[in-house]
């Protein structure tokens, strides 16, 4: 049996029914509609949703991050804005008491921003960062208008092996009066002869000297975090923080495994789930609760033989996060399903070594970031993941303006095609993809038709 | 059994009526694309039926393809133009291993297996520089129609180099060339070469002969030569290049109807 997808409007009745059945919600619970009427999240009415209470909790958790951060500030917590590293500094930040970390650069991706009433992208353009840059530029305007997140007590950003356009945006932000604590991320390379190799989580190898460099930088950032929080971030605290982060990652892995192999949850909700890995949506403990709910729903569906997508759908491995999450709906509407993903932060899904000194472990994880090494290495991991997930096709989505997208696409697509002999397409998905629908439809449907035709051979 | 294929493209809608029993095309026709795509397609289908001296009720299946396929509500089913072009070209040119389709809005490279099924494909999706739209912009700038633009290119002795990746900037380059006194023939040939280069980039290392060229741009005199030069291989033009998508759709409709999949 396939679970039904419901529209935004249908969520009203569904919510009432769930409440009548005794739905118990956390403080951020409530009907989905309020995010449109109060928050201006105008993209939400265009999406199709999983109808479970666990999915509603996920959406409410995602869409209340701003409130959560303001509440934390009011409760005396320190707010750390972390940028670019996608999953590293937050692990350290959450090791301290009364500290919340979030990604201002992640704000662009939340559904509200795509069609939000205050036009962050247009405001960013007025600040000198136009549409030729990644939509991350929206954070500039969010910092200025102060309506999307509170001004952080500390702003941390990795530099070095990061996107060119992102560096420009972050530099502009600093120039606008938001001081940034920069830390250097070396570009991962294979060790030269004579250099001590260091195996990294995820399977790559880097010279130990690069790990030492990242460790030293992270220790420096750890000291800053401690200063802001009025605490010392010692090894014991960081080790506990790593254990807690790994708990989230283990839950995430279990959920990904069930959802992607058995189709227990839809692509859209799973895309959001994965995003929780990088900063826990500003609340690590609540992230655990949200994931446990989803896992319980997934396990129940498994037991009942219920699926969110047909198991006969074409198994697609998706590379890069999408600028418009509506495209996740479209894939399933047209007969595909996600069997695996690389949303640019696979290092934030891998377990952090717990048998190493904690800063060393965190530095190794940072260097395992798929985006800080050559594209062919990322391609090789994608190939392995595709093989393990039985992918029949690969979609590599481009984020308009993101500098990495222009260089990595051909490298990854060609390598995957060559090794796996399965159809691969690159798609440019703009922040609002409505006008591109016929073109997207043709490309995705053609990919699915091709993959299906190959089954018959 | 007679089936219809409708290809609702970005510049024109095409129809093919196919007699599946006698394996022959009964009628083919096209009309400029417009706002009311379904009505245009319906009128076109009626016109084709009238030309073939059949009633619309004689059709055992209708499949729509092309960008506007989802607007054709009276079609029994929709299939993408990738699959339909592959089917249509394989029918006309069974030996083809690679299809280059350049339409009004985009270009595609489709690789086929020996049975004519799609093995892989790539499409341009960033700009119009590899599409028929580029030719339209240039024709307008040179104040000629499209067929004349093609003929002009044949007279070129020294094709211009058009380096911009974007039609808008390429148009600026063309204005510059005109102001320097470069002849229209050299500009026309330069534009064709630029389109061929885009297609070559799209195809990468994947081109395997025989190569079949289809889509409306295949009617442009000079484009085949430009593609052959860029790809360094012989290029065959499909016999009815504008209609291969619609033909493929009609063939697919026939297949579906024969297996009872079309209601």
β content of chain A, as a range? 5-15%
Q: What value does the Rg of chain A take, in angstroms?
A: 21 Å
Q: State the separation between the terminal residues of chain B, measured CA to CA.
A: 14 Å
Helicity of chain A, as a percent range: 40-55%
Task: Calculate Rg of chain B over CA atoms.
Answer: 19 Å
Please count the helical segments of chain B.
8
CATH topology of the largest domain in chain B: Nucleotidyltransferase, domain 5
Count structural domains of chain A.
Answer: 2
Class from helix and strand fractions of chain A: alpha/beta
Estimate the mean pLDDT confidence of chain B.
88
Order of strands, widest sheet of chain A: 4-3-5-6
DSSP summary, beta strand count of chain B: 10
Helices and strands in order, then pairings?
The complex is a heterodimer of chains A (457) and B (263).
Chain A: E1 5-7, H1 10-20, H2 34-37, E2 48-50, H3 53-63, H4 65-74, E3 78-83, H5 89-93, E4 99-102, H6 111-114, H7 120-126, H8 138-145, E5 154-160, H9 164-175, E6 181-185, E7 197-199, E8 205-207, H10 208-229, H11 235-262, H12 267-279, H13 284-304, E9 314-319, H14 326-333, E10 336-342, H15 358-367, H16 375-389, E11 393-398, H17 403-420, E12 424-428, H18 437-455
Parallel strand pairs in A: 3-4, 3-5, 5-6, 9-10, 9-11, 11-12
Antiparallel strand pairs in A: 1-2, 7-8
Helix pairs in contact in A: 3-12, 3-13, 7-8, 10-15, 11-12, 11-13, 16-17
Chain B: E1 2-8, E2 12-19, E3 24-32, H1 37-51, E4 59-65, E5 77-78, H2 81-92, E6 98-102, E7 107-112, E8 118-123, H3 132-142, H4 146-154, H5 167-179, H6 184-203, E9 211-214, H7 223-231, E10 235-237, H8 244-258
Helix pairs in contact in B: 2-8, 3-5, 3-6, 4-6, 6-7
Summarize this, please?
The complex is a heterodimer of chains A (457) and B (263). Chain A is α/β, with parallel strands linked by helices and 457 residues long. Chain A has 18 helices and twelve strands.
């Amino acid at each position: 049996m396939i679970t039904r997808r419901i529209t935004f409007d249908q969520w009203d009745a569904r919510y009432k029914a769930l409440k009548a059945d005794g739905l118990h919600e956390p403080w951020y619970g409530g009907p989905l509609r309020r995010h449109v009427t109060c928050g201006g999240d105008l993209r939400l009415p265009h999406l199709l949703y999983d109808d479970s209470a666990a999915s509603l909790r996920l959406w409410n958790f995602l869409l209340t991050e701003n409130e959560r951060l303001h509440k934390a500030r009011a409760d005396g917590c320190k707010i750390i804005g972390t940028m670019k590293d996608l999953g590293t500094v937050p692990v350290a930040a959450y090791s301290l008491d009364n500290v919340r970390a979030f990604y201002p650069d992640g704000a662009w991706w939340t559904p509200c921003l795509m069609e939000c009433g205050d036009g962050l992208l247009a405001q960013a353009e007025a600040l000198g960062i136009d549409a030729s840059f990644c939509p991350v530029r929206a954070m500039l305007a969010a910092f200025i208008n102060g309506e999307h997140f509170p001004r952080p007590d500390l702003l941390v950003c990795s530099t070095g092996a990061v996107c060119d356009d992102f560096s420009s945006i972050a530099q502009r932000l600093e120039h606008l009066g938001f001081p940034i604590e920069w830390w250097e991320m070396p570009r991962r390379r294979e060790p030269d002869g004579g250099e001590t190799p260091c195996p990294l989580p995820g399977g790559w190898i880097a010279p130990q000297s690069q790990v030492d460099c990242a460790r030293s930088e992270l220790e420096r950032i750890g000291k800053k975090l401690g200063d802001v929080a009025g605490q010392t971030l010692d090894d014991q605290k960081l080790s506990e923080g790593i254990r807690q982060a790994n708990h989230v990652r283990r839950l995430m892995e279990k959920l990904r495994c069930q959802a992607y192999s058995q189709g227990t949850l839809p692509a859209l909700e799973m895309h959001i789930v994965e995003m929780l890995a990088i900063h826990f949506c500003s609340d690590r403990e609540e992230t655990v609760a949200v994931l446990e709910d989803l896992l319980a729903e997934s396990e129940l569906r498994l037991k009942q033989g219920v699926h969110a997508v047909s198991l006969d759908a074409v198994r697609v491995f998706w590379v890069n996060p999408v600028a418009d999450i509506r495209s996740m709906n479209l894939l399933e509407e047209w007969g595909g399903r996600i069997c695996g993903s690389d949303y640019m932060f696979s290092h934030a899904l891998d377990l952090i070594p717990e048998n190493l000194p904690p800063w060393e472990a965190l530095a190794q994880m940072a260097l395992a970031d798929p985006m800080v090494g050559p594209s062919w290495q990322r391609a090789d991991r994608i190939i392995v993941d595709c093989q393990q997930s039985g992918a029949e096709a690969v979609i590599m989505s481009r984020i308009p303006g993101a500098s990495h997208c222009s260089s990595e696409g051909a490298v990854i697509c060609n390598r995957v095609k060559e090794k796996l002999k399965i159809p691969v397409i690159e798609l440019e998905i703009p922040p609002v993809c409505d006008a591109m629908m016929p073109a997207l439809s043709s490309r995705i449907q053609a990919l699915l038709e091709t993959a299906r035709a190959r089954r018959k051979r | 059994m007679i089936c219809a294929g409708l290809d609702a493209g970005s510049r024109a809608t095409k129809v093919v009526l196919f007699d599946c029993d006698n394996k022959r095309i009964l009628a083919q026709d096209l009309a400029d694309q417009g706002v009311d795509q379904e009505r245009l397609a319906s009128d076109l289908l009626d016109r084709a039926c009238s030309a073939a001296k059949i009633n619309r009720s004689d059709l055992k299946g209708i499949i729509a393809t092309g960008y506007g396929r989802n607007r054709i509500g009276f079609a029994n089913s929709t299939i993408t133009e990738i699959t339909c072009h592959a089917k249509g070209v394989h029918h006309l040119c069974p030996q083809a291993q690679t299809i280059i389709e350049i339409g009004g809005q985009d270009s595609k490279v489709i690789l086929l297996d020996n049975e004519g099924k799609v093995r892989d494909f790539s499409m341009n999706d960033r700009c119009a520089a590899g599409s028929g739209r580029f030719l339209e912009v240039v024709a307008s700038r040179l104040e000629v129609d499209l067929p004349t633009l093609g003929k002009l290119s044949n007279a070129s002795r020294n094709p211009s180099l058009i380096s911009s990746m974007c039609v808008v900037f390429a148009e600026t380059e063309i204005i510059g060339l005109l102001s320097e006194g470069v002849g229209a023939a050299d500009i026309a040939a330069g534009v064709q070469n630029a389109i061929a280069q885009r297609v070559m980039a799209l195809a990468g290392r994947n081109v395997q002969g025989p190569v079949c060229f289809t889509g409306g741009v295949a009617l442009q005199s000079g484009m085949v030569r430009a593609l052959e030069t860029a790809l360094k291989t012989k290029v065959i033009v499909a016999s009815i290049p504008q209609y291969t998508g619609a033909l493929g759709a009609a063939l697919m409709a026939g297949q579906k109807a024969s297996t009872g999949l079309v209601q």
